[in-house]
Amino acid sequence: MNEKYFKGTMELTKLLFRQDRKKIIIWLLGLIVVTIAAAYSYPDIYKDEPSKQAFALTMDNPAMVAMLGPGYSDEHYLQSIGTLFAHEMLLFSVVAVAIMNILSVGRSTRADEEDGRIELIRALPVGRLTYVTSSMIVILITNILLVILIGFGLMALGINGLNAESAFLYGAILGSSGIIFAAFTAVFAQLAETSRETTTLAFGFLIMTYLIRATGDVSNETVALISPLGWMVRTGVFADNDWWPVIVALALSVVIIALAFYLNVIRDIGSGFFPARKGRKHASTFLLTPFGLAWRLQRTSIVSWAIGLFALSASFGAILGDLEMYFADNEFVQAFLPSDAGYTMTEQFITLLMAIMALLSTIPVVQAVLKLKGEESKDRIDHYFSRAVSRTKLLGSYYGLAFVLSFLYQGLVAIGLWSVGAAVMEEGLSFTTTISSAIVYLPAMWLLVAFTAFFIGVLPKATGFIWFYVIYCFIVIYLGGILDFPKWMNAISPFDHIPQIPADDMKVIPLITLTIMALLLTHLGIVGYNRRDIRG
């Protein structure tokens, strides 16, 4: 391709690095610190052969295979502590890196074009592909830094089995995964007409690859290999150290990026290959309300998340029958089950699953409120206040939408798990138990929504902090035991106070306390929103 298409790439790359340097540093620090801290903790947790055998037994069941991917042989677990670390950490780390790259590419391509920044840059003597090329270079360098820093970090721990090749392969898995999802997001940025549609398509693709991998890992390995995530959990890192998934991912990324470049050249700026549908000539009565407009602006994202969460929970419900048979046929597992426990191992698995699904549901619920801050940042908020709309009603509409969505998403999670699980299990799950195990997390979700409303009203420049809080909550749920957090650190997360039904008894006091805290923060947010200056 003619080099005139890339004129000014280096200068623009420096500008994009300067613009995103804080976000890049925060993402890298978060990923590296969590990875290194988790790896450092494993030798203290699994000190002897029985503890490693117990780990192998716990992970060798259909539910954990669907959630985390296929494991290693017992011999590998005994020989290298790295295999235990990789089995439990690798897949979720890959997903976290994918999210980082999806958000970064979506922001630096379609979002910048939507806000008019690319048009401003294109007014200068730069090439047609300069902006997208610079964005991909920033992403490439970010992922290379991730590979190098994680590789050296794991190697420096000096843990048995974490040699140089294994350490850098682990980093390369994360880096190559990030690059391939960045490449697909760059293509989606050409197909979609808005940044919201771009990220929706990208996250939908991520969920689809996870579901394909989960289905294939449980039933058919060939199906799992269709998904990039299916490749990454088959490297045998810290054991066989197969590099082919990394090589294939990088090769495919080159092809996908080339496709993104081609699509960028042939489309008009500000347009997409999936044009927005024409709306009605006259707005409905519902659309004329702040709540109706908030719903309409986010309808595509809401529906996409609803489908994704239902499909994800249903896919886990589909393997509950195999899980039940696995525990029934395994005498060793049965020996560890208390005779008076009152709940099955399947129900114990559901407690972990529901906690993770509740956090996933929290993401679109928080996004529903943050949309108001996005409208303000783009100077669209004046359109609301040109009519007789109070600030309380406006913020309350977005908060109310998030409140409704919390019920919707958790209800879909419960129904998906229960309906499919009941079809494959000899004794189906109790609907009451399943719905209770999902709905019980609503107060924790409301507290995060209330924090979002508080930041919008009182500290609008710090609204991004809510995502660090969401990530922290996930770390507490998934890694709190591994990292041996003190009780006060776990207590910072509202999800730590939720009774894990059916393994725990219902505890009303923590739920009431979280709800009252959510109401208080929401009130402070509304008061602050009414008093502060509105941008623009």
UniProtKB/TrEMBL annotation:
It comes from the Bacteria. The chain crosses the membrane at residues 24-42, 89-108, 129-155, 167-188, 200-216, 243-263, 302-321, 349-370, 397-418, 438-459, 466-488, 508-529. Keywords: Membrane, Transmembrane, Transmembrane helix. It holds the Pfam family ABC2_membrane_2. The keyword Membrane applies. This is ABC transporter permease. It comes from Lederbergia graminis.
